[in-house]
């Protein structure tokens, strides 16, 4: 019981701290959403605002916008804590380091991907996405975006000890993101063609379960190596 109380209290303290930091840096917190919006607008302008063309590429464009928007803030996932010494305190805390990494990753998803998930219907309307495809798009994003955050947490932990690793983070993360992008955007395209999307959704769900179990431990091990 004491262990459970310690886990809950540590998670609550970390969440409150992260929310305060997000509130103080409201401009930075809005950057992923603004980037995704700008990307959607640019695609609409580049393709001539033709409804049929935009509807055909809408799933891929929306998925790319969400993926790249999350990638913008990936390098700062643990870097601020490494610079102010918080990661050393995490390692000395009476709770598992993997637990704190998991909480921080969940907050990263909540502050970057969740607003985009809520804005997906509006972005879909801008790209003339058929409304019948919207439930599949939202389901794929709900399964895929946490998976992207967990994979990104491992990559960010591997590079936390390096300076100016923004490009390196992108180079390491993007190849790992490709399967999620393929199954996420492909499920919406398959739904548009009248195909069954259960297989793609189950693969995303299986990947998410594995990532929830393994990614925090892998990221915690990478942080220990980087700090030692």
From TrEMBL:
One of its GO terms (molecular function) is heme transmembrane transporter activity. InterPro entries: Cyt_c_biogenesis_CcmB, Cyt_c_CcmB_bac. Keywords: Cell inner membrane, Cell membrane, Cytochrome c-type biogenesis, Membrane, Transmembrane, Transmembrane helix, Transport. It is found in: Cell inner membrane. NCBIfam families: ccmB. GO terms for biological process: cytochrome c biosynthetic process; cytochrome complex assembly. Belongs to the CcmB/CycW/HelB family. It is a multi-pass membrane protein. One of its GO terms (cellular component) is plasma membrane. Pfam families: CcmB (PF03379). This is Heme exporter protein B. It comes from the Bacteria. Its main location: membrane. The chain crosses the membrane at residues 29-48, 60-78, 90-117, 137-160, 167-192, 198-227. The gene is ccmB. Required for the export of heme to the periplasm for the biogenesis of c-type cytochromes.
């Amino acid at each position: 019981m004491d262990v459970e109380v310690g886990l809950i209290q540590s998670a609550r303290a970390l969440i409150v701290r992260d929310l305060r930091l997000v509130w103080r840096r409201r401009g930075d917190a809005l950057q992923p959403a603004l980037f995704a919006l700008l990307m959607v607008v640019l695609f609409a302008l580049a393709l001539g605002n033709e409804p049929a063309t935009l509807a055909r590429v809408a799933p891929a464009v929306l998925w790319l916008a969400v993926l790249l928007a999350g990638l913008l803030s990936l390098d700062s996932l643990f870097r601020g804590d490494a610079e102010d010494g918080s990661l050393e305190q995490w390692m000395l805390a009476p709770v598992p380091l993997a637990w704190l990494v998991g909480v921080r990753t969940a907050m990263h998803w909540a502050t970057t991907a969740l607003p985009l998930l809520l804005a997906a219907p509006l972005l879909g309307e801008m790209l003339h996405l058929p409304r019948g495809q919207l439930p599949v798009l939202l389901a794929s994003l709900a399964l895929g975006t946490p998976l992207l955050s967990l994979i990104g947490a491992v990559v960010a932990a591997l590079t936390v000890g390096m300076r100016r690793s923004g490009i390196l983070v992108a180079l390491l993360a993007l190849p790992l993101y490709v399967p999620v992008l393929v199954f996420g955007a492909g499920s919406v395209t398959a739904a548009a063609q009248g195909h069954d999307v259960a297989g793609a959704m189950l693969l995303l769900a299986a990947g998410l379960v594995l990532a929830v179990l393994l990614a925090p431990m892998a990221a915690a091990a990478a942080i220990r190596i980087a700090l030692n």
